[in-house]
Write a structure and sequence with these properties.
4 domains, five-stranded antiparallel β-sheet, mainly beta, Immunoglobulin-like, elongated, single chain
């Protein structure tokens, strides 16, 4: 009776963890399998590991067999555990939701030894400060130095994603590779500058960045060298190494209310402002274009100039052009505004200065940047004043004013494509209407709408995990770009706001794919999630 009970228990649904080895060295990776026997998991198990380790899902497989005349099946979820710091770690237990209920794995132990004392590689992280202010952009710089022969394209970054900060959406991280000589050795240098915006006040710890590299291990035994590649120095084998930086403490402070100007712009950083006029002399009713440029080390997306008002003129603001970049390890943004000034009476006209209030983190205080007033010499008669609309695509255009003010030009409208001249005149000929109709159809077929080329389908996805994720990214960019009417390669994160209710989910997927670009181990985007977003597009 006891034997029968034991056999039934052995064949019951169960889950288990299995490590390839229980001892590795710092920087190495070991395979971890989570096996589900005689049951099916409701979803891919998400594993949390202790600090000092990182985990990445690599794929799954299924095996069926017959045991004691009973069919049994095993589903294996494979992960990679990477040792970031030396120590002894307990991994698990994990609860797995299956078709037979919630099942609990056992725990396994992993011992991580320190790197070899002869390993002189250097990997550092730096924020540039230990005190920041809400809204301030900091550049997290990861720098790696090694005398090993790195394999080009074999390095992957995982930038930090700390509490109290968000990734700065206006610019992406910048990577650089260089070489230098040190003590007679050639040193390879890899750098990543990654922008973070302080979002919540408090004392935080910025988790370390991670770098996965591949380097060439030269075989010193001449008998085993590949003679075909010896002249190129390519014989040997590739080895993987993973490095991590220690966490960094940083305090994020709220912007002070004391001394805050009533016209504070919301900008955080150090900024300058300058303005120029297209002409110093004009006539009543004509337009002078005033260009205002705001530059600084803080974000300018969404920023608007203070309203401009005064006697003797009207003003029309155009949409600004904002660019941002990381230059020499520093964040830099520039916004260019154009204003149309229309004098209404002759004489000397003083266009008021632009006065900008912002918070300067380096001084820890509110500050101001101001231009000089622009002075215009206006000739003509007040009766000649004719309101105009300013357009960045050409000279001012006269309009018939309705009421006392004029709406600005809608710069986002898309002009219709004109038909060829021959088609425009074809309707004059006998049967011209039918001819034009057929020509329009043919003309439309020659110019397909954006996104209507042959599209990659989910059924085309490769089976390997890396290729499948790359295919999912291509489908995401293609379908979203087609929805927005732009080219896939031109798709940027700020474009997603035009998707309306789907914008939030699209941005979440975009961010996950962006983390994947730097080697983020948590950047797993499921096919089902992308399919649910783009189905029918």
């Amino acid at each position: 009776m006891i034997g029968i009970v034991w056999v039934q228990a052995a064949l019951a649904a169960q889950v288990a963890l299995r490590l390839d080895t229980e001892q590795i060295r710092e920087g190495q990776t070991v395979r971890l399998d989570l096996q589900v026997v005689d049951a099916s998991a409701k979803a891919i198990p998400k594993l949390e590991v202790p600090e000092g380790l990182s985990v990445a899902f690599k794929g799954q497989g299924r095996q069926a067999m017959v045991l004691d005349f009973r069919a049994t099946s095993t589903t294996t979820f494979s992960y990679e555990l990477t040792a970031l710091q030396p120590g002894t770690y307990t991994v698990g237990p994990y609860s797995v939701t299956t078709s037979e209920g919630d099942l609990l794995t056992q725990a396994v132990q992993l011992t991580v030894a320190p790197r070899s004392a002869s390993d002189t590689d250097s990997f550092t992280g730096n924020l540039g400060t230990d005190v920041a202010w809400v809204g301030q952009v900091l550049i997290y710089r990861l720098r790696f130095e090694t005398d090993k022969t790195l394999i080009r394209g074999g390095s992957r970054w995982t930038p930090p994603s700390p509490q109290g900060f968000t990734s700065e959406p206006t610019v992406e991280g910048v990577t650089a590779e260089s070489r230098l000589e040190q003590d007679g050795k050639a040193i390879s240098v890899l750098e990543l500058d990654f922008p973070l915006r302080a979002s919540s006040p408090g004392k935080w710890t910025v988790n370390g960045g991670v770098l996965q590299t591949q380097y060439l291990v030269t075989d010193k035994n001449p008998r085993r060298r590949n003679r075909a590649l010896e002249g190129m120095g390519m014989f040997g084998e590739a080895r993987d190494e993973v490095y991590s930086t220690p966490p960094l403490p940083v305090e994020v402070r709220p912007l002070p209310t004391e001394g805050r100007p009533a016209d504070a712009s919301g900008l955080v950083g150090h900024f300058s402002v300058a303005s120029t006029a297209s002409s110093q002399a004009t006539k009543v009713g004509d337009t002078v274009t005033v260009e205002v440029v705001v530059e600084g080390d803080g974000p300018l997306a969404g920023f608007a100039l203070p309203p401009l008002a005064g006697d003797g003129f009207r003003v029309y603001d155009d949409q600004p052009v904002v660019v941002a970049a990381i230059e020499d390890g520093k964040y830099h943004a520039k916004a260019t505004f154009k204003r149309a000034i229309v004098p209404l009476e002759p004489g000397d006209l003083a266009v008021p200065a632009v006065d900008l209030a912002f918070f300067d983190p380096s001084a820890g205080a509110w500050a101001r940047a101001t231009t000089e007033p622009i002075r215009l010499e206006v000739t003509g008669d007040a009766a000649q004043a004719n309101p105009t609309v300013f357009s960045p695509d050409g000279p001012p255009k006269g309009v018939s004013a309705l009421g006392e003010d004029i709406l600005p030009v809608r710069t986002e409208s898309v002009p219709a494509k004109p038909l060829p001249r021959a088609l425009a005149l074809a309707w004059l000929a006998p049967g011209g209407l039918a001819l034009v109709a057929q020509a329009i159809l043919a003309f439309g077929r020659r110019t397909p709408r954006a996104g209507r080329a042959r599209r990659e389908d989910f059924s085309d996805l490769p089976m390997d995990a890396e290729g499948r994720l790359a295919g999912i990214e291509r489908i995401f960019r293609e379908r979203v770009a087609g929805r927005l009417g732009i080219a896939p390669e031109a798709l940027r994160r700020e474009d997603l706001a035009a998707l309306g209710p789907a914008a939030e989910e699209a941005e979440a997927i975009y961010r996950a794919l962006e983390r994947r670009r730097y080697g983020g181990h948590d950047a797993v985007v499921s096919e089902e999630r992308v399919r649910a977003l783009v189905e029918g597009w």
